[in-house]
TrEMBL record:
InterPro entries xref list: DDH_dom (IPR001667), DHH_sf (IPR038763), DHHA2 (IPR004097), DHHA2_dom_sf (IPR038222)
SUPFAM superfamilies: DHH phosphoesterases (SSF64182)
Record-listed E.C. numbers: 3.6.1.1
Enzyme class: hydrolase
Species this chain originates from: Glaciecola petra
Name of this protein: inorganic diphosphatase
Cofactor section: Mn(2+)
Length: 306
């Protein structure tokens, strides 16, 4: 039976590019696979797809009765709504283990690296399948995005080596400049609806029975938010109430200054302060050196909720 390869809701570049790259690999080794997505692509992801000549994968929201290979997460809150009615045949991920469960054995490729596409590169090497030039390009860009051009504390030697190898295959001489082009696209926020910005890179987490949403906007200069920060604060408060969430956090990340301002909407602001050992001012925290949601934001917050 054929499989669908899909990332998480509100897909980022790793999720979209990973689904495309993994579906190609599976087809090359005789396992019929189709890349799909669970939401609209971000401006950065569209830039990457256009750069290397790809169309976005098919938008598919229902997977009941289907075989599904999950990319870039293991969280039910981020999976298709009907994932319990599907058969999960595999997972490739670089996050903490979530709460997805299966009734049958599955293939798992989970590594503590900066990007799922780094692991997919390892899979290509394992199966000895050549990576096409265009697929190498999108995989490289996904790794540069997730590792913030190697600045993120999640970045490993494996990520760097994979980018270097993929850049050679893709024929990209200056991959760091291409990475900066991607972040310039991310930084173009003027004129974008506030809700679209809040949900651009947004994930829900079940933290000990409490639903917590965390969004992140990575830019090269936080001044791009000066005129809209109050609107962002108002919108995360609305999003919290609309979704019945305990907390919604929005990270405004400056990749050049290497830190994040956290905007807070929470039923218990003191719990957020406890998590990071800092006192909030006007529902805001400055987190120096914080670039990674999965490594620097989620773990202390989960500990605080426990």
């Amino acid at each position: 039976m054929a499989m669908y390869v899909v990332g998480h809701k509100i897909p980022d570049s790793d999720s979209i590019c990973g689904a495309i790259a993994l579906a190609y690999l599976k087809n090359q080794i005789g396992e019929e696979a189709t890349a799909t997505r669970l939401g609209e692509v971000s401006p950065e992801t569209q830039f990457i797809l256009d750069k290397f000549g790809f169309q976005a994968p098919e938008l598919k929201m229902s997977y009941a009765g289907e075989n599904v290979y999950i990319v870039d997460h293991t969280e039910k809150t981020q999976a298709p709504d009907d994932i319990d009615e599907a058969t999960v045949v595999g997972v490739v991920d670089h996050h903490k283990l979530g709460d997805l469960t299966t009734s049958t054995p599955l293939e798992c490729w989970i590594r503590p690296v900066g990007c799922s596409n780094t692991i997919i590169k390892m899979m290509y090497d394992f199966y000895q399948v050549d990576i096409p030039k265009d697929i190498a390009g999108i995989m490289m860009c996904a790794i540069l995005s997730d590792t913030v051009i190697f600045k993120s504390p999640t970045c490993t030697t494996a990520d760097i080596k994979c980018v270097e190898a993929l850049a050679e295959i893709a024929g990209i001489d200056d991959f760091k400049e291409l990475g900066m082009d991607m972040f310039r696209v991310k930084s173009a926020v003027q004129g974008t609806p506030v809700r679209e910005l809040v949900k651009r890179d947004f994930k829900d987490f079940d933290m000990h029975g409490k639903l917590v949403g965390i969004g992140q906007l990575e830019v090269i200069d936080l001044s791009v938010f000066d005129d809209i920060k109050s609107d962002l604060e108002a919108d995360i408060a609305k999003l919290k109430e609309e979704g019945g969430r305990h907390t919604v956090l929005l990270l405004l990340t400056d990749i050049m200054q290497e830190g994040s301002q956290m905007l807070i909407a929470s039923d218990d602001e003191g719990l957020i302060e406890t998590a990071y050992g800092l006192k909030a001012t006007d529902k805001k925290l400055w987190l120096d050196g914080v670039l990674s949601r999965k490594k620097q934001v989620v773990p202390p917050l989960q500990d605080a909720f426990a």
